[in-house]
Amino acid sequence: MSSLQILKPDPSPVKQTVHSEHETSSFRNPHFTSQSRIFTMTSVSQALRQHSRLSLQRTVSLRAMVFVLLFFACGQPAQPQEEKDRPPQPPAGRRGGGFGGPIELGPDDVSVYAAPPEGFKRIRDSVPHGKLEMVEYESKTVGTTRKMQVYTPPGYTTENRYPVLYLLHGIGGDETEWQRFSTPNVILDNLIADGKAVPMIIVMPNGRAQKNDRAEGNAFASAPSFATFERDLLDDVIPAIEAKYSVDTNREKRAIAGLSMGGGQSFNFGLTHLDTFAWIGPFSAAPNTKKPQELIPDVEDAKTKLKLLWISCGNKDGLIKISQEMHQFLKKNGIEHVWHVDGHGHDPQHWSSSLYWFSQQVFQNKPAIANQPGKPLIGKWSATFNTQIGDQDYEYTIETKDDQVGGSAVMKLNGETYRSRLALVKLDGKRVSFEETLNFQGNDLLITYEGELEGDNMQLTRKVGEFATEKLIAKRVK
Fold it and tell me: What is the mean pLDDT of residues 248-269?
Protein backbone atom coordinates (compact mmCIF):
# COMPACT_ATOMS: atom_id res chain seq x y z
CA MET A 1 0.00 0.00 0.00
CA SER A 2 1.40 3.39 -0.93
CA SER A 3 2.12 5.84 1.86
CA LEU A 4 0.99 9.40 1.47
CA GLN A 5 1.99 12.44 3.49
CA ILE A 6 0.22 15.78 3.68
CA LEU A 7 2.56 18.75 3.39
CA LYS A 8 2.06 22.15 4.90
CA PRO A 9 1.01 24.69 2.27
CA ASP A 10 3.53 27.25 1.10
CA PRO A 11 2.67 30.47 2.93
CA SER A 12 3.90 32.59 0.04
CA PRO A 13 1.29 33.48 -2.58
CA VAL A 14 1.32 31.53 -5.82
CA LYS A 15 2.77 33.55 -8.63
CA GLN A 16 0.59 33.65 -11.73
CA THR A 17 2.54 32.50 -14.79
CA VAL A 18 1.30 33.96 -18.03
CA HIS A 19 0.82 31.65 -20.98
CA SER A 20 3.26 33.37 -23.28
CA GLU A 21 6.12 32.69 -20.88
CA HIS A 22 5.10 29.16 -19.98
CA GLU A 23 3.05 26.77 -22.03
CA THR A 24 3.66 28.33 -25.44
CA SER A 25 7.36 28.77 -24.86
CA SER A 26 7.62 25.04 -24.25
CA PHE A 27 6.81 24.45 -27.88
CA ARG A 28 8.85 27.35 -29.20
CA ASN A 29 12.29 25.84 -28.85
CA PRO A 30 14.95 28.29 -30.08
CA HIS A 31 16.32 25.58 -32.40
CA PHE A 32 12.95 25.07 -34.07
CA THR A 33 11.20 27.36 -36.54
CA SER A 34 8.15 26.91 -38.72
CA GLN A 35 10.42 26.29 -41.69
CA SER A 36 12.10 23.33 -39.99
CA ARG A 37 8.84 21.39 -40.14
CA ILE A 38 9.46 20.67 -43.83
CA PHE A 39 12.54 18.56 -43.09
CA THR A 40 12.33 14.82 -42.73
CA MET A 41 14.75 12.68 -40.79
CA THR A 42 16.29 11.64 -44.13
CA SER A 43 17.10 15.21 -45.15
CA VAL A 44 18.52 15.89 -41.69
CA SER A 45 20.78 12.84 -42.00
CA GLN A 46 21.98 13.97 -45.43
CA ALA A 47 22.80 17.41 -44.11
CA LEU A 48 24.72 15.98 -41.19
CA ARG A 49 26.81 13.74 -43.42
CA GLN A 50 27.99 16.82 -45.33
CA HIS A 51 29.68 18.10 -42.17
CA SER A 52 32.64 15.73 -42.09
CA ARG A 53 34.09 17.44 -39.04
CA LEU A 54 31.20 16.28 -36.86
CA SER A 55 32.04 13.27 -34.77
CA LEU A 56 29.71 10.28 -34.80
CA GLN A 57 28.68 11.10 -31.24
CA ARG A 58 27.65 14.65 -32.14
CA THR A 59 25.76 13.38 -35.19
CA VAL A 60 23.73 10.93 -33.14
CA SER A 61 23.03 13.60 -30.52
CA LEU A 62 21.81 16.06 -33.12
CA ARG A 63 19.62 13.45 -34.75
CA ALA A 64 18.07 12.62 -31.39
CA MET A 65 17.43 16.29 -30.69
CA VAL A 66 15.76 16.81 -34.07
CA PHE A 67 13.60 13.72 -33.56
CA VAL A 68 12.33 15.04 -30.22
CA LEU A 69 11.59 18.44 -31.70
CA LEU A 70 9.79 16.95 -34.67
CA PHE A 71 7.76 14.62 -32.45
CA PHE A 72 6.52 17.34 -30.13
CA ALA A 73 6.31 20.29 -32.47
CA CYS A 74 5.27 18.74 -35.78
CA GLY A 75 1.60 18.16 -35.24
CA GLN A 76 1.02 19.22 -38.85
CA PRO A 77 2.42 17.71 -42.05
CA ALA A 78 4.81 19.69 -44.20
CA GLN A 79 3.26 22.41 -46.32
CA PRO A 80 3.28 21.72 -50.06
CA GLN A 81 5.17 24.19 -52.25
CA GLU A 82 2.02 25.75 -53.71
CA GLU A 83 0.72 26.41 -50.20
CA LYS A 84 3.96 28.11 -49.16
CA ASP A 85 3.80 30.36 -52.22
CA ARG A 86 0.37 31.73 -51.36
CA PRO A 87 0.13 35.41 -50.39
CA PRO A 88 0.22 36.24 -46.67
CA GLN A 89 -3.53 36.88 -46.42
CA PRO A 90 -5.12 33.50 -45.45
CA PRO A 91 -8.12 32.32 -47.49
CA ALA A 92 -11.57 31.86 -45.94
CA GLY A 93 -11.70 29.15 -43.33
CA ARG A 94 -7.96 29.30 -42.63
CA ARG A 95 -6.36 31.04 -39.67
CA GLY A 96 -2.76 31.69 -38.78
CA GLY A 97 -1.97 28.88 -36.38
CA GLY A 98 0.94 30.30 -34.41
CA PHE A 99 3.36 27.66 -33.15
CA GLY A 100 1.29 24.73 -34.41
CA GLY A 101 0.88 25.69 -38.04
CA PRO A 102 -2.01 26.88 -40.22
CA ILE A 103 -5.57 26.14 -39.14
CA GLU A 104 -8.29 24.68 -41.37
CA LEU A 105 -11.75 24.86 -39.81
CA GLY A 106 -14.39 22.39 -40.97
CA PRO A 107 -18.20 22.46 -40.60
CA ASP A 108 -18.06 20.54 -37.32
CA ASP A 109 -15.52 22.87 -35.73
CA VAL A 110 -18.00 25.05 -33.86
CA SER A 111 -18.84 25.96 -30.30
CA VAL A 112 -21.22 23.62 -28.49
CA TYR A 113 -21.18 25.66 -25.29
CA ALA A 114 -21.47 29.32 -24.52
CA ALA A 115 -18.75 31.25 -22.74
CA PRO A 116 -18.85 30.65 -18.97
CA PRO A 117 -20.62 33.39 -17.03
CA GLU A 118 -18.57 36.28 -15.71
CA GLY A 119 -16.97 35.45 -12.39
CA PHE A 120 -17.19 31.68 -12.80
CA LYS A 121 -13.71 31.28 -11.26
CA ARG A 122 -14.00 34.10 -8.74
CA ILE A 123 -14.00 33.20 -5.04
CA ARG A 124 -17.48 33.63 -3.58
CA ASP A 125 -17.58 34.22 0.18
CA SER A 126 -21.20 33.12 0.25
CA VAL A 127 -20.51 29.49 -0.70
CA PRO A 128 -18.72 26.66 1.17
CA HIS A 129 -15.12 26.02 0.16
CA GLY A 130 -13.28 22.78 -0.32
CA LYS A 131 -9.72 22.05 0.75
CA LEU A 132 -6.62 22.21 -1.43
CA GLU A 133 -3.49 20.50 -0.13
CA MET A 134 -0.10 19.39 -1.38
CA VAL A 135 0.63 15.75 -0.60
CA GLU A 136 3.53 13.35 -1.08
CA TYR A 137 3.46 9.72 -2.22
CA GLU A 138 6.02 7.01 -2.79
CA SER A 139 6.51 6.29 -6.48
CA LYS A 140 7.82 2.79 -7.15
CA THR A 141 7.86 3.66 -10.85
CA VAL A 142 10.30 6.54 -10.41
CA GLY A 143 11.98 5.31 -7.24
CA THR A 144 11.48 8.46 -5.21
CA THR A 145 8.95 10.52 -3.25
CA ARG A 146 6.79 12.73 -5.45
CA LYS A 147 4.19 15.49 -4.99
CA MET A 148 0.65 16.16 -6.16
CA GLN A 149 -2.10 18.63 -5.30
CA VAL A 150 -5.45 17.28 -4.11
CA TYR A 151 -8.79 19.10 -3.89
CA THR A 152 -11.47 17.69 -1.61
CA PRO A 153 -14.96 19.19 -1.95
CA PRO A 154 -16.82 21.20 0.71
CA GLY A 155 -18.18 18.95 3.43
CA TYR A 156 -15.80 16.11 2.62
CA THR A 157 -16.40 13.18 4.98
CA THR A 158 -15.22 9.60 5.19
CA GLU A 159 -18.88 8.57 5.46
CA ASN A 160 -19.22 9.18 1.70
CA ARG A 161 -17.38 7.67 -1.26
CA TYR A 162 -16.32 10.31 -3.81
CA PRO A 163 -15.57 10.10 -7.53
CA VAL A 164 -12.11 11.25 -8.59
CA LEU A 165 -10.95 13.40 -11.51
CA TYR A 166 -7.25 13.09 -12.38
CA LEU A 167 -6.32 16.44 -13.95
CA LEU A 168 -3.05 16.59 -15.94
CA HIS A 169 -0.86 19.60 -16.79
CA GLY A 170 1.00 20.72 -19.92
CA ILE A 171 4.56 20.10 -21.10
CA GLY A 172 6.05 23.05 -19.23
CA GLY A 173 4.05 22.61 -16.04
CA ASP A 174 3.94 20.56 -12.88
CA GLU A 175 1.49 19.72 -10.09
CA THR A 176 0.83 23.45 -9.53
CA GLU A 177 0.04 24.45 -13.12
CA TRP A 178 -3.72 23.92 -13.09
CA GLN A 179 -4.00 25.91 -9.89
CA ARG A 180 -1.98 28.78 -11.35
CA PHE A 181 -3.85 28.80 -14.66
CA SER A 182 -7.44 28.05 -13.73
CA THR A 183 -8.04 27.59 -9.97
CA PRO A 184 -10.03 24.33 -10.25
CA ASN A 185 -10.89 24.50 -6.54
CA VAL A 186 -12.74 27.78 -7.02
CA ILE A 187 -14.53 26.59 -10.17
CA LEU A 188 -15.70 23.43 -8.39
CA ASP A 189 -16.67 25.24 -5.19
CA ASN A 190 -18.99 27.48 -7.21
CA LEU A 191 -20.42 24.73 -9.41
CA ILE A 192 -21.10 22.43 -6.46
CA ALA A 193 -22.80 25.28 -4.57
CA ASP A 194 -25.01 25.94 -7.61
CA GLY A 195 -25.92 22.26 -7.93
CA LYS A 196 -24.25 21.99 -11.35
CA ALA A 197 -21.43 19.61 -10.44
CA VAL A 198 -21.31 16.62 -8.11
CA PRO A 199 -18.91 16.75 -5.15
CA MET A 200 -15.68 15.17 -6.36
CA ILE A 201 -12.00 14.87 -5.52
CA ILE A 202 -9.58 16.41 -8.02
CA VAL A 203 -6.01 15.10 -8.16
CA MET A 204 -3.37 17.22 -9.92
CA PRO A 205 -0.19 15.10 -10.19
CA ASN A 206 3.14 15.79 -11.87
CA GLY A 207 3.22 14.15 -15.30
CA ARG A 208 7.02 14.33 -15.52
CA ALA A 209 7.81 10.88 -14.08
CA GLN A 210 11.53 11.23 -13.35
CA LYS A 211 13.58 11.93 -10.23
CA ASN A 212 14.13 15.58 -11.09
CA ASP A 213 10.55 16.38 -12.01
CA ARG A 214 10.81 20.17 -11.76
CA ALA A 215 9.64 22.24 -14.71
CA GLU A 216 13.05 23.60 -15.59
CA GLY A 217 15.54 23.45 -18.41
CA ASN A 218 14.63 21.99 -21.79
CA ALA A 219 11.10 20.57 -21.48
CA PHE A 220 11.64 18.39 -24.56
CA ALA A 221 14.42 16.50 -22.81
CA SER A 222 11.77 15.13 -20.44
CA ALA A 223 9.80 13.52 -23.27
CA PRO A 224 10.36 9.90 -22.14
CA SER A 225 9.18 10.73 -18.62
CA PHE A 226 5.79 11.89 -19.89
CA ALA A 227 5.18 8.40 -21.28
CA THR A 228 6.57 6.78 -18.13
CA PHE A 229 3.93 8.67 -16.14
CA GLU A 230 1.35 6.18 -17.43
CA ARG A 231 2.72 3.58 -15.01
CA ASP A 232 3.26 6.09 -12.23
CA LEU A 233 -0.38 7.16 -12.51
CA LEU A 234 -1.81 3.66 -12.62
CA ASP A 235 0.56 1.92 -10.19
CA ASP A 236 1.39 4.67 -7.69
CA VAL A 237 -0.82 7.77 -7.85
CA ILE A 238 -4.23 6.06 -7.98
CA PRO A 239 -3.41 3.50 -5.25
CA ALA A 240 -2.05 6.29 -3.00
CA ILE A 241 -5.22 8.36 -3.44
CA GLU A 242 -7.50 5.39 -2.84
CA ALA A 243 -5.57 4.45 0.29
CA LYS A 244 -5.71 7.96 1.79
CA TYR A 245 -9.09 9.34 0.73
CA SER A 246 -12.64 8.06 0.83
CA VAL A 247 -12.92 7.14 -2.83
CA ASP A 248 -15.41 5.19 -4.94
CA THR A 249 -13.11 2.77 -6.76
CA ASN A 250 -15.53 1.75 -9.53
CA ARG A 251 -14.33 2.71 -13.02
CA GLU A 252 -17.55 4.70 -13.52
CA LYS A 253 -16.36 6.99 -10.72
CA ARG A 254 -12.92 7.71 -12.18
CA ALA A 255 -12.14 10.37 -14.81
CA ILE A 256 -9.02 11.70 -16.53
CA ALA A 257 -8.61 15.09 -18.22
CA GLY A 258 -5.79 17.45 -19.06
CA LEU A 259 -4.51 20.42 -21.00
CA SER A 260 -2.10 20.38 -23.96
CA MET A 261 0.49 17.65 -23.25
CA GLY A 262 -1.84 16.47 -20.46
CA GLY A 263 -4.63 16.38 -23.03
CA GLY A 264 -2.51 13.99 -25.09
CA GLN A 265 -1.87 11.90 -21.98
CA SER A 266 -5.62 11.87 -21.31
CA PHE A 267 -6.21 10.43 -24.77
CA ASN A 268 -3.32 7.97 -24.49
CA PHE A 269 -3.92 6.72 -20.96
CA GLY A 270 -7.69 7.03 -20.85
CA LEU A 271 -8.60 5.33 -24.11
CA THR A 272 -6.12 2.48 -23.60
CA HIS A 273 -7.31 1.85 -20.03
CA LEU A 274 -11.09 1.91 -20.28
CA ASP A 275 -11.25 -0.58 -17.41
CA THR A 276 -9.82 2.22 -15.26
CA PHE A 277 -11.34 5.42 -16.70
CA ALA A 278 -14.91 5.88 -17.93
CA TRP A 279 -14.80 9.68 -18.39
CA ILE A 280 -12.12 11.30 -20.56
CA GLY A 281 -11.58 15.02 -21.24
CA PRO A 282 -8.65 16.12 -23.45
CA PHE A 283 -8.41 19.93 -23.81
CA SER A 284 -6.31 21.21 -26.78
CA ALA A 285 -4.35 17.96 -26.97
CA ALA A 286 -0.68 18.24 -28.00
CA PRO A 287 1.32 16.18 -30.56
CA ASN A 288 2.16 13.51 -27.97
CA THR A 289 -1.33 12.16 -28.75
CA LYS A 290 -1.18 8.76 -30.43
CA LYS A 291 -3.13 8.00 -33.61
CA PRO A 292 -6.87 7.27 -33.20
CA GLN A 293 -6.56 3.77 -34.66
CA GLU A 294 -3.89 2.93 -32.12
CA LEU A 295 -5.89 4.29 -29.19
CA ILE A 296 -9.18 2.67 -30.23
CA PRO A 297 -8.43 -0.68 -31.89
CA ASP A 298 -11.79 -2.07 -30.73
CA VAL A 299 -14.57 0.37 -31.62
CA GLU A 300 -17.38 -1.65 -30.07
CA ASP A 301 -15.50 -1.99 -26.78
CA ALA A 302 -15.04 1.79 -26.65
CA LYS A 303 -18.74 2.34 -27.34
CA THR A 304 -19.65 0.05 -24.47
CA LYS A 305 -17.23 1.38 -21.86
CA LEU A 306 -17.04 5.13 -22.50
CA LYS A 307 -19.38 7.17 -20.31
CA LEU A 308 -18.14 10.43 -21.83
CA LEU A 309 -15.38 11.45 -24.24
CA TRP A 310 -15.30 15.26 -24.09
CA ILE A 311 -12.86 16.92 -26.53
CA SER A 312 -12.21 20.64 -26.89
CA CYS A 313 -9.86 23.02 -28.67
CA GLY A 314 -9.78 26.70 -29.61
CA ASN A 315 -10.27 27.82 -33.19
CA LYS A 316 -7.11 29.93 -32.89
CA ASP A 317 -5.03 26.99 -31.65
CA GLY A 318 -2.37 25.79 -34.09
CA LEU A 319 -2.62 22.29 -32.60
CA ILE A 320 -6.31 21.86 -33.46
CA LYS A 321 -5.60 19.33 -36.21
CA ILE A 322 -4.77 16.67 -33.61
CA SER A 323 -8.22 16.88 -32.05
CA GLN A 324 -9.89 17.31 -35.44
CA GLU A 325 -8.44 13.98 -36.59
CA MET A 326 -9.72 12.27 -33.47
CA HIS A 327 -13.17 13.80 -33.92
CA GLN A 328 -13.36 12.63 -37.53
CA PHE A 329 -12.33 9.09 -36.53
CA LEU A 330 -14.96 8.99 -33.78
CA LYS A 331 -17.62 10.38 -36.09
CA LYS A 332 -16.79 7.88 -38.85
CA ASN A 333 -17.02 4.97 -36.40
CA GLY A 334 -20.16 6.15 -34.65
CA ILE A 335 -18.55 6.69 -31.22
CA GLU A 336 -20.51 9.26 -29.23
CA HIS A 337 -18.47 12.20 -28.01
CA VAL A 338 -18.51 15.95 -27.46
CA TRP A 339 -16.47 18.11 -29.86
CA HIS A 340 -16.38 21.71 -28.65
CA VAL A 341 -14.40 24.42 -30.49
CA ASP A 342 -14.46 27.85 -28.84
CA GLY A 343 -12.90 31.16 -29.90
CA HIS A 344 -9.68 30.87 -27.90
CA GLY A 345 -6.14 29.79 -28.68
CA HIS A 346 -3.78 27.49 -26.81
CA ASP A 347 -4.30 29.37 -23.57
CA PRO A 348 -5.59 29.29 -19.98
CA GLN A 349 -8.88 30.88 -21.00
CA HIS A 350 -9.72 27.84 -23.09
CA TRP A 351 -8.63 25.41 -20.38
CA SER A 352 -10.63 27.20 -17.67
CA SER A 353 -13.73 27.25 -19.84
CA SER A 354 -13.31 23.58 -20.78
CA LEU A 355 -12.94 22.53 -17.14
CA TYR A 356 -16.04 24.57 -16.28
CA TRP A 357 -18.20 22.67 -18.79
CA PHE A 358 -16.56 19.25 -18.43
CA SER A 359 -17.03 19.37 -14.64
CA GLN A 360 -20.77 19.76 -15.15
CA GLN A 361 -21.04 16.56 -17.16
CA VAL A 362 -18.54 14.23 -15.55
CA PHE A 363 -20.01 11.62 -13.14
CA GLN A 364 -23.58 12.43 -14.17
CA ASN A 365 -25.83 11.57 -17.07
CA LYS A 366 -27.26 14.95 -17.97
CA PRO A 367 -26.15 17.47 -20.61
CA ALA A 368 -24.50 20.66 -19.39
CA ILE A 369 -25.83 23.23 -21.84
CA ALA A 370 -26.73 26.71 -20.60
CA ASN A 371 -29.50 28.55 -22.44
CA GLN A 372 -29.07 26.45 -25.57
CA PRO A 373 -32.51 25.28 -26.67
CA GLY A 374 -31.15 25.02 -30.19
CA LYS A 375 -28.27 22.63 -29.49
CA PRO A 376 -29.32 20.05 -32.14
CA LEU A 377 -29.17 22.88 -34.70
CA ILE A 378 -25.56 23.81 -33.95
CA GLY A 379 -23.36 23.39 -37.01
CA LYS A 380 -23.46 24.34 -40.67
CA TRP A 381 -26.46 24.04 -43.02
CA SER A 382 -26.74 24.68 -46.75
CA ALA A 383 -29.68 25.45 -49.01
CA THR A 384 -30.29 26.51 -52.60
CA PHE A 385 -33.70 27.88 -53.58
CA ASN A 386 -35.38 30.02 -56.22
CA THR A 387 -36.57 33.53 -55.42
CA GLN A 388 -38.03 36.47 -57.33
CA ILE A 389 -34.55 37.89 -57.84
CA GLY A 390 -32.79 34.66 -58.77
CA ASP A 391 -31.35 31.47 -57.28
CA GLN A 392 -29.85 32.01 -53.85
CA ASP A 393 -27.16 29.75 -52.39
CA TYR A 394 -27.04 29.87 -48.58
CA GLU A 395 -24.73 28.51 -45.91
CA TYR A 396 -26.03 29.00 -42.37
CA THR A 397 -23.71 28.65 -39.37
CA ILE A 398 -25.54 28.17 -36.06
CA GLU A 399 -23.43 28.46 -32.91
CA THR A 400 -23.50 29.74 -29.34
CA LYS A 401 -22.17 33.06 -28.11
CA ASP A 402 -22.71 34.91 -24.85
CA ASP A 403 -25.16 32.27 -23.62
CA GLN A 404 -27.35 32.70 -26.71
CA VAL A 405 -27.83 30.56 -29.81
CA GLY A 406 -27.27 32.57 -32.97
CA GLY A 407 -24.81 32.63 -35.81
CA SER A 408 -24.24 33.92 -39.31
CA ALA A 409 -25.03 33.21 -42.94
CA VAL A 410 -23.32 33.63 -46.30
CA MET A 411 -25.55 34.07 -49.34
CA LYS A 412 -24.51 34.08 -53.01
CA LEU A 413 -26.72 35.69 -55.64
CA ASN A 414 -25.80 36.52 -59.24
CA GLY A 415 -22.09 36.30 -58.51
CA GLU A 416 -22.29 38.54 -55.44
CA THR A 417 -21.70 37.43 -51.82
CA TYR A 418 -23.73 38.76 -48.90
CA ARG A 419 -23.14 38.14 -45.20
CA SER A 420 -25.80 38.32 -42.53
CA ARG A 421 -26.48 37.69 -38.84
CA LEU A 422 -28.72 35.02 -37.29
CA ALA A 423 -30.50 35.48 -33.98
CA LEU A 424 -33.30 34.09 -31.77
CA VAL A 425 -32.58 30.52 -32.83
CA LYS A 426 -35.11 28.23 -31.15
CA LEU A 427 -36.02 24.56 -31.24
CA ASP A 428 -39.25 23.46 -29.56
CA GLY A 429 -39.65 19.76 -30.16
CA LYS A 430 -39.29 19.66 -33.94
CA ARG A 431 -40.34 23.26 -34.47
CA VAL A 432 -37.50 25.49 -35.69
CA SER A 433 -37.45 29.26 -35.87
CA PHE A 434 -34.81 31.97 -36.25
CA GLU A 435 -34.28 35.43 -37.68
CA GLU A 436 -31.80 36.74 -40.22
CA THR A 437 -30.71 40.37 -40.64
CA LEU A 438 -29.43 40.86 -44.19
CA ASN A 439 -28.00 44.08 -45.58
CA PHE A 440 -29.13 44.10 -49.21
CA GLN A 441 -28.43 47.08 -51.47
CA GLY A 442 -27.98 49.36 -48.47
CA ASN A 443 -31.11 48.21 -46.64
CA ASP A 444 -31.34 45.98 -43.56
CA LEU A 445 -33.91 43.30 -44.26
CA LEU A 446 -35.45 41.26 -41.44
CA ILE A 447 -36.02 37.69 -42.67
CA THR A 448 -37.85 35.13 -40.54
CA TYR A 449 -37.63 31.33 -40.78
CA GLU A 450 -40.08 28.79 -39.40
CA GLY A 451 -40.35 25.07 -39.98
CA GLU A 452 -39.49 21.60 -38.72
CA LEU A 453 -36.31 19.66 -38.05
CA GLU A 454 -36.25 16.16 -39.54
CA GLY A 455 -32.92 14.49 -38.89
CA ASP A 456 -30.33 16.39 -40.94
CA ASN A 457 -32.91 18.48 -42.81
CA MET A 458 -34.72 21.67 -41.87
CA GLN A 459 -37.91 22.24 -43.89
CA LEU A 460 -38.38 25.98 -43.64
CA THR A 461 -40.68 28.77 -44.73
CA ARG A 462 -38.71 31.97 -45.31
CA LYS A 463 -40.43 35.36 -45.18
CA VAL A 464 -38.66 38.50 -46.38
CA GLY A 465 -40.72 41.17 -44.63
CA GLU A 466 -43.91 41.73 -46.59
CA PHE A 467 -42.19 41.22 -49.94
CA ALA A 468 -41.77 37.48 -50.47
CA THR A 469 -42.28 34.01 -49.03
CA GLU A 470 -40.22 31.00 -50.12
CA LYS A 471 -40.05 27.32 -49.20
CA LEU A 472 -36.62 25.70 -48.77
CA ILE A 473 -34.84 22.69 -47.32
CA ALA A 474 -31.59 23.36 -45.44
CA LYS A 475 -29.35 20.28 -45.21
CA ARG A 476 -26.75 19.72 -42.53
CA VAL A 477 -23.18 20.00 -43.86
CA LYS A 478 -21.19 16.94 -42.74
Answer: 97
